[in-house]
Amino acid sequence: MDARQHFSALFGHLQAQIGGEEGFTLGYGAEVSSFIRFNQGQVRQAGQVQQVYATLSLYLGQRHAESKLALSGALDEDLPRLQQALQRLRDVLPTLSDDPYLRLNREAWRSELAGDAAPLDSTAMARQIIAAATGLDLVGFLAVGPQYQGFASSWGAFGWYAAHSFNFEFSLFHGNGQAVKSAYAGEQWDAQAFARKLQGARQQLEFLGRPAKALQPGAYRAYLTPAALEELVSLCCWGFGAQALASGGSPLQRLFSGKAELSSLVSMEERIEGGLAPAFTPEGPRQPLCLISQGRPGERLVSSRSAAEYELIANGACSGEYPLSLRMQGGELEEQGVLQRLGTGLYIGNLWYGNFSDLPAGRLTGMTRFATFWVEDGHIQAPVNTMRFDDSLFDFLGPNLEALTREPELLLPGATYGARQTGSMALPGALLSRFTLTL
């Protein structure tokens, strides 16, 4: 029995058990993932995880409760577990108070997407990595395999999502202990695309043997790679949520209140097509949203609870009200011309330990990490030791943003705690006229 059949059978069983004024929703998540760990360019650990989780929510009037179950994938074992969970929820519902902000989507919507890409061969991918890493101290982690998500309700909603993807995060270490970090992710493995990624990291590795350049705190011209920009953008994503904006706690408050604008180069959208997230959430079908249009505020992410509390219209946002498939529009800067356009300044490959130093002002702080280089006249001169940055997104995505690279890069979440994460970001690199280092 494949994953969709398993999910459909669980759903059918619940439909037969529900009666009277009861209603239910069933969430489903499963994966068959291979995990391969590399050290010194060789496979050091390999394994596979196959797991299934279901979340059953039971509703009666304005009361609701939920139970999360770990399942085996074998129907004769899982149906009794599901039945026991249903009975526990029935027992607890009478003890609960009404939820004043409960607003259920009772539409009989349907959404199915199963990627037609060929299954990924983790063994062949590992062999290519080993061959390409000959002579390098490569440390990395490869996660690959299909992921499944489902959602159904007693009111006729049914959503199914299946996709194959991979994420290979790796670092190349110099003999002095410094490293260049990179990543390659997507739905279809392209050996040539990976070779280009590795070659770019290999070229940067050569510069790590030079004496590091000491910089004084101050503002410098800088180029942020897509990976570095992701650290900054991801910190602010929850700020698009209706609840955060209505409560005044969003880092994007000044933008959405009309007190600040970003550069006209900045346009962001929550997309359905082209991302690696289901076209639905437990809140209903997701909608494509224009979040920022040429530096000006656009739509916000609205869950059903925020819709009820603030008298808004829900748009299928997840309960956390953050983008699941964020895409930032690219610009006119060719990637091959980045160093020439930068001229003299910082090439920042990664940022680390990001946090807010002044949330209402959209001010972020953190550390440079791995390969950050000093560039003069369009040529890398030396690595730069780890430094702390502190700057406002209303500055580095505002008047200090000079250009964006043409093609946004697909970035997948690397987190595997509990399960591999779905969702994605597509971000360009950003050329800044100034970026502030403090320590």
Automatic annotation (TrEMBL):
Keywords: Hydrolase, Protease. It comes from the Bacteria. Residues 217-437 form the Metalloprotease TldD/E C-terminal domain. The keyword Metal-binding does not apply. One of its GO terms (biological process) is proteolysis. GO terms for molecular function: metallopeptidase activity. The keyword tRNA processing does not apply. This is Metallopeptidase TldD-related protein. It comes from Ectopseudomonas alcaliphila.
